[in-house]
Write a structure and sequence with these properties.
mainly beta, four-stranded antiparallel beta sheet, globular
Length: 114
């Protein structure tokens, strides 16, 4: 079955960086687009970034210029490089495989605090 496993979250100070990873298994990875979403406490889940099968990327305005989504097809992994982190970036971050009804990982917590 399809599985997505996120990692790389943690506690970081404002202005710091983190790189999240999402490893996919049980599916052909290269032909599908992948998303990152996040959900802050008490808020709805929101879209962060998308990378197409061809490597094109789009970002939410709130993260544009600070976050970079990328993928390594050989490793079946998508990444989210997050720079210049702000307290408002604190959330659980989820990856999503855009196949069928969509598949989600379990999420990884990112906390930006001094």
């Amino acid at each position: 079955q399809v599985q997505l496993v996120e990692s790389g979250g943690g506690l970081v100070q404002p202005g710091g960086s983190l790189r999240l990873s999402c490893a996919a298994s049980g599916t052909i990875f290269s032909i599908y687009s992948m998303d990152w979403y996040r959900q802050a406490p008490g808020k709805q889940r929101e879209w962060v970034a998308t990378i197409s099968s061809g490597g094109s990327t789009i970002y939410a305005n709130s993260v544009k210029g600070r976050f970079t989504i990328s993928r390594d097809t050989a490793k079946n992994t998508v990444y989210l490089q997050m720079n210049t982190l702000k307290p408002e970036d604190t959330a659980v971050y989820y990856c999503r495989l855009n196949r069928d009804q969509g598949y989600w990982g379990q999420g990884t917590q990112v906390t930006v605090s001094s």
